[in-house]
Every structure is written in C-alpha cells, then in structure tokens.
Amino acid sequence: MIDLSFPFTEEKIRALKVGDEVFISGVVFTGRDAVHKYLHEGGRLPPGVNLRDGILYHCGPVVLKDEQGNWKVTAAGPTTSTREEPYQAEIIKQFGIRGVIGKGGMGDKTLAACQEFGCVYFHAVGGAAQVLAECVKKVRNVYFLEKFGSPEAIWELEVEHFPAVVTMDSHGNSLHKEILAASQVELAKRL
Amino acid sequence: MNALQDSLIELIRRTSAEIPDDVQKAILDSLEREKKGTIAESAMKIIERNIALAKQKSQPICQDTGSILFYVDGPVGMDQIAFEDAGCLAVKKATKKGYLRQNSVDSLTGVNDGTNVGPGSPTFHFHQHRPEEISVRLVLKGGGCENVGAQYSLPNEKLNANRDLGGCRKVILDAVLQAQGKGCGPGILGVCIGGDRATGYEFSKRQFLRLIPDRNPAPELDALEQDILKTANELGIGPMGFGGKTTLLGVKICAVNRLPASFFVSVSYMCWAYRRQGVALDAGGKIVKWLY
Fold first, then answer.
1. What pLDDT, in 10s, does the model give residues A106-143?
2. What is the reported pLDDT for A13?
3. With contacts defined as CB-CB under 8 Å, which chain B residues touch A145?
4. How far apart are CA A140 and CA A158, in angstroms?
5. For chain B, does the N or the C end have fewer beta carbons within 10 angstroms?
6. In sequence order, what are the residues at sequence separation of 6 or more whose Cβ sits closer than 8 angstroms to the Cβ of residue A26?
7. Is some CB atom of chain B closer than 8 A to the CB atom of A142?
8. Chain A contact for B64, CB < 8 A?
C-alpha cells in the first residue's frame, strides 16, 4: 500500500504504476456526467474550485444535512467512468488534473492524456459506498447544487486513507486493456 | 393505509442497507476462492466490510440506490391504485431519510426534483394470485450494472451465434466479456431467451427474484446456467475487472415464447450490491414475514 497525500505533484503521480494499491488523503472534487458535459461545452469552473494538481472523483454521493446544518456524506462510491471518455482527456489537459478516481476504467484518449500530462486513473471499489464514505472526513463545500442536483453537483471533500488501485498509469499502461485482451483469448478457447 | 406506507418504507430501508443472506454467502465464498495478496482479494475484502458497515449504520450499501422495482402479488380485488399511492409516498419519505439517493431525473429538462417520484419511477409490476396474502418484492438496481445489460437478436453473424442454445451461450458469454468489471462484478446474470424487446428485458430482470443457490427446474436451462457460470469464472476478469477467479456469482435463465421472426436473448447484469428483499403483508398492510 502506498500513501498518497496532498499535494499531488507530477513527480508522485509519475512514480505510480498499474497495480499499485494506494491510500489517498487530501482534497478531492466530485464531478460526473453533467459537470463533464458543461466543461466540455466551455463552461467555467465556479470560483473556489481549483483542479490544478488535484483529483477529480467520478461520484454522486448521498449527502444529508445534520441538525447543525452541516453536510454529511452517507454513501460515496464511484460511478462508471467510461461515460466521461469523450470529455476526460481535454479536461485533464485544460485543468491540470493529476488523478481521476472512478470505476470501470477509461479508454485510449484518456490513457494518452494521462501519459502526456502526468495523470493517473485510480479505480475504487464500485458499490463500496459505506467504506468509502467513512474515508470522507469533511464536506468543505458544494457547487452547482441547484443547477445540477445533488448527485451531479461538485462536492469538495476532504478524504483520508481512501483506498484505490492504479489501473491506468502515466506511462501508457492500462490494466483494463490487459484484462480485456487476456479474457478475449480465454473465451475464444471455450467457444 | 399508514401501516402499508410504513411497511414499504421499512422494506426500502432494509433492501437498500442489507444484502440478502444468499448473496452474502456467495460473496464470502468467492472471497475464500480469490488468491491471497491479490487486488481481487483486496476488493472482495472491501466489499465484505462494506456490507457489514451498511447494515450496522442502516445506510445504503451503494450510493446508487437504483431503479426502484416493485413486484406485487395480491388477491383479486386488491386496490392497486391505493397501493401505488402508498408506494410513491413511501419512496418520497425513504428518500428524505437517505435510504434512497435523489436519483430520478426528468429526461427532457434534466431537472432532479429530489423526490424519486415521476413518470416511470418507481415501477410497479402487479400480479393477481388466489391467496389472500399480499407479497411485495423490491429490487433496487443501480445504473452501472443496468448500463452493461445487452440484448442480442439471433442469428448474430459476428458472434457466429445461431438460433439454438449454443447460440444463446455465445451471446451470453459475449455480454460477460463486454461488461468486464464495469457492472461492478462479481455479478449475477438474469437472462431471458425469447419474448419481444420489452418483455425480454422484463423477464430477464424477474430472474433476480430467484435465490442464488436455486436450480432451474428445466434441465437444459439448468445446464446452460451452470455452464455459463463455470466458463465466465475461467475468463480471469475477476472482481471489479481487476483479474481473478470470480467474475460471476450466479446465472439465472428463463425462456418464454417468441415470434417465428424474432429470437431475442436479453441479458440483465446485477452488480454484487444485489439489493433484493420482500415482505408478506396482512390485509391491514402490516409486515407478516420477510421473504429473503
């Protein structure tokens, strides 16, 4: 297990390889379908959201307000990342993102952007909403809550020891491509 | 009527927060099978911990609390309109309590009004039966696994799949290959051979009401289920697509009649966070027993 803490410098990110298991600590911003489409269409990030050297989390959490009026994340697993494949490479380039957390992996365009700009894809365990919500120590802020609705909003979260696996690194390697190719060969033998 | 609403809220809470015993057992068995020290084992351990934590905290196992699918069996004369009203109110209240995420979006405007109630949500499937008892089964099916479902029309030249069980086997295994880890494996397949495009998927989803260890009474379908399960678990896709021994936890297949011109094979994929529960209700709407 590798501890990866803020700041997420290019050097730290470039040192990661496919198959590395990491614990992420620091600030992450959630962003999923609506945010990606909005940014792709030239939308601006709201003041306060800085993704440079940051981590974007493909996640639509369940967030409730407690009696004191503070936000509390009660479920926060990753959503399927491949839906953002048309947009992700450009967003990595434009906003200087160092890490994307999601599930299911992404395609060649994103892999190439990871290599060119120094970014990695972290795979979290899909469906593990409670284990991952426990890693969220604080909700710092929320943006676009009205505009996009709660699951699609940008939530600024402080996470500690958030477990994930590097499945796409900044050297052109993708565990998803490897497993797909190997499983195709195995299936062909059994047809 | 309030008793019915309360019962349905409790059904939603328990479905969202507690994995059924048969699924939990299948998950624990697969954790045993994975090689120690692999990423697959780490993933299964996180899944195991997540199941315990969700139950203990009475919070959603997965933040995507999914499509809300009610399957209701009731006696002749049961008031379905009143039942739907109570179901919709229960969904609204369960959403406020955080058992369900604000998870339903207007497809034209993109507006999420935060209630989970709107055209097509929740979905009720009513069925009459002779006993006086009302049984309500609930499946919460997340979007990640719904998106990897697939419907094939046979013959399929690309996959060399003809209109026979061999052809069905090929397309079902293709669906597993295409899904990789994207549907949050290890998964469970619900398959319907036959039907039209709508009923094919509908019957495939009904397979998720079956218990994981049950066996298909039709020998040829039972053989196909066992074969697909064994073969899929030899492909090395593994939990979350990380590689490993468990790609599927179960395969459930039904066959319904088709038109001479059509031969559909509809494959629905259920993630490991297989949320399915049910209750039997008395005439007053009170829970008499749990069905899973």
1. 999 999 999 999 999 999 999 999 999 999 999 999 99
2. 98
3. none
4. 7
5. N
6. A5, A6, A7, A8, A55, A158, A159
7. no
8. yes
Rounded CA separation B246/B185 (Å):
8
Query: CA B231 to CA B235: how far, in whole Å?
Result: 7
Shortest CA distance to A113 belongs to which of A81, A83, A88? Answer: A88
Contact B206, B278 (CB under 8 A): no
Catalytic residue from among A36, A58, A123, A176: A36
Domain A2-189 has CATH 3.20.130.10: yes
Share of chain B above pLDDT 70, in %: 100
Provide, as residue numbers in chain A, all residues whose Cβ is less than 8 Å from the Cβ of B177: 180, 183-184, 187
What integer best gives the mean pLDDT of chain B? 97
Confidence check: pLDDT of B64 > 60: yes
Fold of the CATH domain B2-15+61-142+275-290 = 60s Ribosomal Protein L30; Chain: A; (3.30.1330)
Q: Domain segments of chain B: what residues?
A: 2-15+61-142+275-290, 144-270
Size of interface A-B (CB pairs under 8 A): 160
In this predicted structure, the answer to whether residue B94 has a pLDDT above a threshold of 90 is yes
- Interval B271-292: pLDDT, tens: 999 999 999 999 899 999 999 9
**Structure ipTM:** 0.93
Q: Is B145 on the interface with A (CB under 8 A)?
A: no
pLDDT at B285: 95
β-pair partners for B281: B134, B287
Q: Taking 60 as the threshold, does the pLDDT of residue B1 lie above it?
A: no
Q: Å from A6 to nearest chain B CA?
A: 24
Domains of chain A by residue range: 2-189
Chain A partners within 8 Å of B50 (Cβ)? 125, 127-131
Residues of B in contact with A176 (CB under 8 A): 180-181, 241
Q: Are A120 and A168 in contact (CB under 8 A)?
A: yes
A104 and B144: CB-CB below 8 Å? yes
Split at pLDDT 50, 70, 90, the class of B135 is: very high
A175 CB near a chain B CB, below 8 Å?
yes
How far is the alpha carbon of A23 from chain B, nearest alpha carbon, in Å? 13
Is A36 among the residues known to form the active site? yes
Instruction: Tell me how far CA of residue A189 lies from CA of A4, A177, B224, in angstroms.
Output: 41, 19, 18
Those residues of chain A that have pLDDT short of 50 are none
pTM: 0.95
